Predict the 3D structure of the following.
Amino acid sequence: MMLLDSEQPRADALVLFGATGDLAKRKLFPALYHLERTGALDVPVIGVARSDWTDDAFCQNAHDAIIASEPHADAAVMDPLMERLDLIQGDYAEQSTWEELRATLDRHGSKNAVYYMAIPPSMFPEVARRLASVDLNHRGRIVVEKPFGRDLPSAQELNATLASVFPEERIFRIDHYLGKESVEDLLVFRFSNTLLEPIWNRRYVRSVQVTMSETIGVEGRGSFYDGVGAIRDVLQNHLLQVVALLAMEPPAGSDAQFLQDEKTKVMAAMTAIDPAHLVRGQYVGYRDEPGVETDSSVETFAAARLEIDSWRWAGVPWYVRVGKALTEPATEAVVEFHSPPRLLFDEAGGPAPDRNLVRFRLGNSDGVTFALQAKTPGPHLDSQEVDISVDFAAALGERSEAYERLLGDAIAGSPRRFARQDVVEQTWRVVQPALDEPGPVHPYFRGSWGPSEADRLLADGDHWYDPSS
Ligand code: BG6
């Protein structure tokens, strides 16, 4: 099969750094099980773990992780998967660990491995350098998990370190939102429906809102989260990647580079957050969470009003909100169109019709709803909202989980659903003023929609659309 320009050859081994950690347990082993089931996993999986793990303990850990998410896991899938697992026990700081890794890959005949860094970002540079010390950087690609830096300078520094060891095309940066079918659908929905494109601009769109709300709090991740906060944890990455897909121009072709080029362009046209257009919140009780400072001013909620100074979007407010401990778990993008002329309705004495909306549900029960207006039955010319809605799972069938798709892509060598460095740097540039001048953090109650101060970001006549699912 012909490779597109930016595609890489298929990998022949998967090396998991952090194979006994939390991410591996919650996401990676269940994803490997699904890949095995579909026949997409045809390589050895080599875990690297501390020296006090035995092979048996490692396999048991992987097995338990799979059962926790797939209680009825099929032995015909599980057994061959367990056969693929290999463990290298050792300290990352010991050169012998790296020599053993190389010898193990040689034994498997591997010439092109995926090195998956399910480890804290502070360890990325060391692992990259150690791979180079045994010459493994010439035969494979690395997969790094977010966060890619803490701000623009540290993101650039991290990248410079990684780039000194691996070329950009062999650095795959995971933002798991890019692996969600519903998020990728934004691209397809926008550019495969002629209906939408003519109205997808400042002439017709009044505002765009994106809400990413979670009902959970920090769930035992207090010590990690308190050093990060909502802006770095999800706004800079997941949320701005969604905005890029909603706002970008059509890519020039199907190669991944064209898609990344358009994301970079639209992010470059976004003005950096004005601190006056930022509201941060913290749920009441956050400071009592284990691992959180008792006087923490880290935000668990952030809302901002963004602007994209382009021909398509100038003057259209982009309202974004992210938060934990909110009312509903949802990720939703709402595109609101200008009001129609009222003439017909004024003359008849009826209320003005509500504005049309396109609502993309990107989280639970993903799908899309068009909120249109239709005649209210009766003698008057009044209108009321009718929803034309589709649930994608019902209409299109169940889809794979993000991590399954991304791990499969990393093995297959397909970079399309990963984040390119220039896009990442643009997103840090956009949020940098919010990190430099964060302003106060406003308390809000669990189960609410965040602090009421977020309302002051809205232009006259605008309101927050709470997710509908
Ligand atoms: C992660 C964040 O990247 O995304 C978490 O670190 C957050 O804090 C999670 O809970 C949300 O992912 P999803 O797929 O459940 O929306």
About this structure: Residues 214, 233-234, 363 surround 6-O-phosphono-beta-D-glucopyranose (CB under 6 Å). The chain has a mean pLDDT of 94. The first strand starts at residue 13 and ends at 17. Residues 33 and 209 are 36 Å apart (CA to CA).
